[in-house]
Amino acid sequence: MIACDDDGNHAALVEHNVSLTGLAVDWIHGLVFWTDWGLKTVNVMNLNTKQRKVLFNEDIDSPGAIAVDPSKGLIFWTDWKKETIERASMDGNDRMTIVNSSSSTGIALDIFHERVYWADRNTNTIASIDYNENDRRTILRSSTYIKYPFSLAIFEDKLYWADVYQKGVFVMNKFNGTEVRQLINDVFEPRIVRVYHNAVQPELPNKCNHHSCGDGAICLPKDNSFKNRTGLPYSCVCADGYKTGEEPNTCVLSIVSNVFTTTVPVPVVPIPAVPVPAAPAPVT
């Protein structure tokens, strides 16, 4: 996995044993989430400290697309073999399945209306559901326009998708599936479509901006529907290579060598949040 800036400067974030299938960036908290098909994991990394954490490695078969909503503290991902779409808090808690029996290949979030969109290659459909597993809708069913949709993107009232078999990128009205047209054709196996615009990544409160979780821990936003035991909108989660210490709010660093293993307690001290401005009004 490689990061690159606008000038073309790049650096490897993860170099070894990676079978990356899905990638999502939290532009507010400086986090990147990804799914690993080979290791069967859902992962997160702090882009500033490069500390990483395996959030999920159980009951995962073939993790695919992943999406993040920093405003709500939620991540969503697909599992091809389980035919599910799952949701969890960004700190790894409150995991739940919101869609069953769907061969979903790509997902996209409408963070303003709190809906998940996905494409199903077996039923030639694009559908949506709200974050709480309610109000499921089929937006478009078409074997003409939907053959092997691999990636989705949302911008304002439009939904875009890349179709591998169609060798193109399509667009439609995200609410009712009208105004369908092909934007790009004759592209060899288009797999990713993205929209870059300020409206897609709005300025939002940073739940971790005024907090310090200490060495060995990553500050991860929490699902807005819940509060952790400190009553704060974030969790201090021990990074990989650390484990929870015996003392409260500590991580223990495990140093492994060919000769010995040692543990060193590292304090994890959450600092109470400073009030931040409210999120901007939804785009309608």
Automatic annotation (TrEMBL):
Q: Where are the LDL-receptor class B repeats?
A: 30-72, 73-115
InterPro entries of this UniProt entry? 6-blade_b-propeller_TolB-like, Cueball_EGF_LRP_Nidogen, LDLR_classB_rpt
Q: Which UniProt keywords apply?
A: Disulfide bond, EGF-like domain, Glycoprotein, Repeat, Signal
Which Gene3D superfamilies did the record assign?
Answer: TolB, C-terminal domain (2.120.10.30)
Q: Does the keyword Repeat apply?
A: yes
Q: Which PROSITE patterns match?
A: LDLRB
Protein name listed in UniProt = EGF-like domain-containing protein
